């Protein structure tokens, strides 16, 4: 019998409890032992829940019970998730989380504490929801030279961009629709400003480089500036616009960023639609592999959390990724790529003077793709065009 | 120092040796130990190879060397791969393979022997080349109720179907092109008749159901009957034709098959083009997840083989999947789905009389999609139409 405690009985917490009950046969067969949900920590009571008798309000009840071997933290937010995680690890309990915020901010410390206390710290559900991403990267790919990990890491923004592309909706209309369907929060900032994706690329970056950056150090752009005209222009040249998190691991320090990118139809990520997420790894000699599925929701997230629990039960303590705190990141100013720009129609002369002899995409605007140039070059050109009276309507990088 | 032996110094064997040398830093960091390729078994000598001094011609040299802890079998074919694998496991050496034929035929015995001898038997490279598929299914997903595993498991046939779709080539022309590019063998039967895919779905099916079928018991159709007209008709209704291996795990015994299917554009598998492979798992509460990448080639296959080696070095013996030999398979006659049929133009009356009031796809033929019907129903209808003088030109199932 393996005794566990769940911290937080919201959507994910109740999804975890449901999975363990409904799939009991699979869980016992796979994990090799019965699982007993001994405690569920929440501020609220749930008198009508079948788990009503497991609800506790004091974390110390869990901490001081030596029979609880694993704590599942699905509260969200940095605090008190941080304090509870530290206390649980120091009490020699393994910790599993779906909380990307606390992982992105403190994974180095938690992983060190886990080693010190001979227990596990696992966080498969923190990136890509139910998609196995972290475990395959840690267990199956690291014999490669990993050149890049990139992904569509936020389902809400991908849903909005898909609606804009497929139904010709404006950003605002697509956001309202996502809110109506429950895919976007009433305050959608963490999604649409790229904050959620920045946490996730911080985590992926740490697995690949063994260095944990601060999400605040990562160049982060959301999708609020994407116009329907950009989506339409992209379609004209066989491209789609996707919000990507990227960690490019090709030099001394990685480029790590979150920004909208224009992807050609050849890119596997271009086909990822709606609320789906995908993570692509580019490695030698492996080539490109992609992991795809639902990036959120009670069921998928619970699958990832319980999958971590199964692995702890099967393998016990395992050498996890070793991750050190770092602020070494390649300067974004030198990040180079082709770029899409759009100016108003009457800017043609200024555009030619600034960007040279570009081919205009067939549209009502002066929209075009530049050759490869760095961020600082692009900034200079934007400044120069603006000085001539034409500020760019859009600037989107090309993958 | 971990001493290994490689059986077979062909494309995959030399890819494995190259990876271990070129990515030595990653391998040592990840696996936690230096790897020494002590022996390479091959009938040939390789005087110009940097590994010339490791070549041996007698398997007993490897078998009788107690310092060799892991044997990498990348010879292909059932024999002597079977005999070498049994002998190595009984000599308490772990075995890793990329050889789908020997896995599909004997995995139950090898896994049992591995447990008995407290060593590992691993075969990530046998399905999907470098794509992590087997490890994520074994380690990350089995807490779910797995309803289906299906995939594009053969790059050669997917390349041919993609060429037919994208360039309007006939099957024959696309096959010639695949042969010219080295994607298809001079004798392409194992690929185009679905034999290779049948071995792979046998393996995936064993992971999901814990029962190993014989590939011979699996209904297997290749792509040799697919006409350009079918591909074009599919495109007209927003579909693509893909050769799928499917294991549908919804009743007492699974339906397991290899056959071409028509996939709507909504299916993630429909977007898998060229030589790429993908495996999709449908599970509760996880939903759909897909693993995508290159399904063959020296580099990707070596990545999977060395990935297995890393896991053995990191975790030692682990409870693998338990797999029993079985012949319990759902009778294909009762397999039900919608179906695409094509008849010659003049068959319209016969078609209506046989299939009822179907909608014809805009083409030069009488092509249409039926409602859901079983294999036996479909066979009766084909027989009846044929008796009226019109044998179907095509019959393709719809996913």
Q: Please tell me the total number of domains of chain A.
A: 3
Count of helices of chain A?
Answer: 14
**Major beta-sheet overview of chain A:** 9 strands, mixed
CATH homology-level superfamily of the largest domain in chain A: NAD(P)-binding Rossmann-like Domain
Distance between the termini of chain A: 50 Å
Q: In which range does the helix fraction of chain A lie?
A: 25-40%
Structural class of chain A: alpha/beta
Tell me what the CATH architecture of the largest domain in chain A is: 3-Layer(aba) Sandwich
Instruction: Supply Rg of chain A.
Output: 23 Å
Beta-strand percentage of chain A?
A: 15-25%
Query: What is the number of beta strands of chain A?
Result: 19
CATH class placement of the largest domain in chain A: Alpha Beta
Show unreliable segments of chain A.
Answer: none
Provide the residue-averaged pLDDT of chain A.
96
Oligomeric assembly? homodimer
Q: Which fold name corresponds to the CATH topology of the largest domain in chain A?
A: Rossmann fold
Coarse shape of chain A: elongated
Largest interface: A-B, 55 and 55 residues
What does this structure look like?
- Two copies of one chain form a homodimer.
- By secondary structure, the first copy, chain A, is α/β, with parallel strands linked by helices.
- Helices cover 38% and strands 24% of the residues of chain A.
- Chain A has 14 helices and 19 strands.
- In chain A, strands 7, 9, 10, 11, 12, 13, 16, 17 and 19 form a nine-stranded mixed beta sheet that branches. In chain A, strands 3-2-1-4-5-6 form a six-stranded parallel beta sheet, with helices on both faces.
- Chain A is elongated.
- The termini of chain A are far apart.
- The interface between A and B is large, with 55 and 55 residues.
- Strand 13 of chain A pairs antiparallel with strand 13 of chain B.
């Amino acid at each position: 019998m393996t005794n566990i405690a769940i911290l937080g009985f919201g959507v994910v917490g109740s999804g975890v409890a449901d999975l363990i009950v409904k799939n009991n046969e699979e869980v016992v067969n796979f994990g090799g032992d019965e699982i007993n949900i001994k405690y569920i920590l929440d501020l609220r009571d749930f008198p009508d829940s079948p788990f009503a008798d497991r609800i506790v309000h004091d974390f110390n009840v869990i901490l001081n019970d030596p029979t609880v071997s694993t704590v599942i933290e699905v509260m969200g937010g940095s605090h008190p998730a941080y304090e509870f995680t530290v206390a649980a690890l120091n009490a020699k309990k393994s910790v599993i989380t779906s909380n990307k915020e606390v992982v992105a901010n403190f994974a180095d410390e938690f992983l060190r504490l886990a080693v010190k206390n001979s227990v596990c710290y696992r966080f498969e559900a923190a990136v890509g929801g139910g998609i196995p991403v972290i475990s395959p990267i840690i267990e199956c790919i690291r014999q490669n030279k990993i050149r890049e990990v990139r992904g569509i890491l936020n389902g809400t923004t991908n849903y909005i961009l898909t609606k804009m592309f497929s139904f010709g909706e404006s950003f605002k209309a697509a956001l309202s629709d996502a809110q109506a369907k429950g895919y976007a929060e009433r305050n959608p900032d963490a999604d649409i400003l790229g904050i959620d994706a920045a946490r996730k690329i911080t985590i992926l970056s740490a697995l690949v480089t063994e260095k944990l950056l601060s999400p605040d150090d990562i160049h982060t752009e959301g999708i609020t500036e994407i116009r329907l005209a950009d989506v339409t222009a992209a379609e004209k040249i066989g491209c789609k616009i996707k919000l990507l998190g990227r960690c490019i691991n090709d030099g001394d320090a990685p480029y790590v960023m979150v920004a909208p990118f224009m992807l050609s139809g050849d890119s596997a990520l271009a086909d990822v639609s709606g609320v789906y997420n995908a993570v692509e790894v580019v490695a030698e000699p492996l080539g490109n592999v992609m992991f795809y599925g639902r990036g959120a929701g009670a069921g998928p997230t619970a699958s990832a959390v319980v999958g971590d629990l199964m692995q702890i039960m099967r393998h016990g303590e395992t050498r996890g990724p070793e991750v050190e705190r770092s602020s070494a990141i390649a300067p974004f100013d030198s990040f180079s790529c082709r770029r899409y720009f759009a100016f108003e129609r009457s800017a043609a002369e200024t555009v030619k003077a600034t960007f040279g002899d570009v081919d205009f995409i067939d549209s009502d605007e002066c929209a075009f793709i530049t050759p490869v140039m760095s961020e600082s070059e692009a900034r200079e050109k934007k400044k120069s065009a603006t000085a001539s009276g034409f500020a760019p309507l859009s600037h989107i990088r090309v993958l």
